[in-house]
Amino acid sequence: MKKTTLLFLFTTLSFLTYSQEITLIDFGSNNFLTAGNWNNITNATLTGSNDLIDDQGNLTGETLSITDAFDDDPGELGTTTPDGSLPFPSNSTIDFFFGEDVDFTPSGGTASNEPTGGFTLSGLEAGKYYSFKIFASRAGVSDNRETLYTITGNSGDQTATLDAANNTANVAAIFNVLPTAGGEITIQVEKGPNNNNTPNGFYYIGAIEMTKTDVALSSDSFSFNGLVNIYPNPSSKYINISYSLKEAAKVKMSVYNINGKAVKTILNEKKSVGSFIETWDRSNVASGLYILEIDADGRKYNSKIVLE
């Protein structure tokens, strides 16, 4: 599967784009490594550094170090059927790191008590913006497994919560974190305030999509997954465009050539809150550079698409 990575910018100017770098991280078991350009972090108590690659397979110069241990043994009871609009395949959602408030002894394992877990991202670029989509899932439970994520950079703490219980489609999103002058961001994971799992207070982290941009992303009514997937390669007939809406909106999705001439209107209809995938049949469109524009109630996002 070939992926073309796009970034969508809130702007009133036509055809304004900017660069981004996406890094994909899977926390969990050696039994469920995610194939492709993923960073598989499998030792929940690792003190060394993991060199990270981006979603194109390039070394980023960034590292991830576990600085606050999770439980010794990663879990393998997450969802095997994540929502298709998410950038997380099943091998990244079935496993996870976890911790708890009280002593817990897994079957065949040793007792653990890790009320917090966390890691540090190093080698980041000062002055760049880092945005995070965090996924976690614990299938087959009936209580609240809310997890609190605290991300700390140059401007203090930013937080988000996510209930991992039977989760297949939701993420915790934190936008536009600036790293410290030394190029670091820390992420702490712990039980959320609505977590009612008794007596353990289990919390989870399964996968992260981290996006680095030159300018701040908009985090209001639009929430894009950030990827346009081309199957199986850039010359494929169909292009799938995945995105999410936090508020209902009239959405128009159009493609223009580089000179601004309309090529195709993919969508023009009212959409409710939720995640969606639109498909563009580009079989009669020549190779070259195009602009994808998405307008939701006057809010415009534009990005380049290179077709081969």
If you had to describe this structure to a student in words, what would you say it looks like?
This protein is mainly β and 308 residues long. It folds into 2 domains: 19-213, Jelly Rolls (Sandwich), CATH 2.60.120; 222-307, Immunoglobulin-like, CATH 2.60.40.1930. Helix content is 1%, strand content 49%. It has 1 helix and 22 strands. The chain has one helix at 90-93, and strands at residues 2-5, 9-11, 20-27, 39-41, 49-53, 59-68, 97-99, 116-122, 129-135, 146-153, 156-163, 172-177, 185-191, 203-205, 207-213, 222-230, 238-245, 249-257, 262-271, 274-281, 288-296, 299-307. A 6-stranded antiparallel sheet has the order 5-6-8-13-10-11, with no helix packed on it. The protein has a 5-stranded antiparallel sheet with strand order 2-22-21-18-19, with no helix packed on it. The longest helix has 4 residues, at 90-93. The radius of gyration is 20 Å and the shape is globular. The two termini are 15 Å apart.
Give a brief outline of the structure.
With 308 residues, the chain is mainly beta. It has one helix at residues 90-93; strands at residues 2-5, 9-11, 20-27, 39-41, 49-53, 59-68, 97-99, 116-122, 129-135, 146-153, 156-163, 172-177, 185-191, 203-205, 207-213, 222-230, 238-245, 249-257, 262-271, 274-281, 288-296, 299-307. It has two domains: 19-213, Jelly Rolls (Sandwich), CATH 2.60.120; 222-307, Macroglobulin (MG2) domain (Immunoglobulin-like, Sandwich), CATH 2.60.40.1930.
